[in-house]
Amino acid sequence: MNGFYRATRGTFAQFGVPVPHAERLIDTVLAHAADERYFAADRQNACNVLDVAHPLWLTRHSGHRRGEVEALARRLLGDALPRWRSGQSVSFGPGDEPGLQGTEMWLAIVWYLADLVGQAEALRYRPRGIHRPEPAAEVRSPAPISR
After folding, report:
1. What global pTM score does this model have?
2. Which contacts qualify for 87-92: CB closer than 8 Å, 24 or more apart?
């Protein structure tokens, strides 16, 4: 799963194209997120959690396994929120010092997870830049050529 965010952010999400096979993607992401080697609270880092949060958010329209997706989003939110260190921000992963990279990634993660459970408005921010939920451009089918 590592790298899924980069692959879909730079392709499907960037251009507003739906990710194909949403149900299979959700099944795979939920199985991956159940792996304690990566998703025990003390093993999570910004990359592995973003690689779960973003594809689940991209496929939210399918409704596939919605209850399980929301339960995972709530659990990951519960793991993420205590990472904030007042006056310091957030570290990228366990044992790291708080810094800009961790902060910008975890703020995006928290927003995506909160949106999955219908609570993004309560955050009073929306990711911008590379982590923005909106596509940069939309791919449109060309107009038919009239003869």
Report:
1. 0.90
2. 92/45, 92/46, 92/47
